[in-house]
What does this fold into?
Amino acid sequence: MAPAYIAYSSCVLFGCLAGGLYPLGFAWLLEGLPESQYGYASGAFARFYGMGSIIGPTISGLSSESWGANGLFLSLTILGSISFLGIKFFRAKDVITH
It folds into this structure.
């Protein structure tokens, strides 16, 4: 096993890097929208980001409990694939009609 200071340092580094995902993703979202759609996009982004924050760890934890350490990677692969397909096939231009 790795010493505790390596594990704690890795967690801090991951937290610092992951903390920038929300503002970066939000800025990227608003970059391609007209100002009249900012409110709608803001609500949808916050809703889906929150749902992902609840569903992702829950599914990953359940799969780790069920299938061991490999279950974590299996669930991350499945959730990542679903996210990729959602981004590829579900676009904002299909939703915003006015």
Remarks:
- The CA atoms of residues 50 and 64 lie 22 Å apart.
- The chain is about 85% helix and 0% strand.
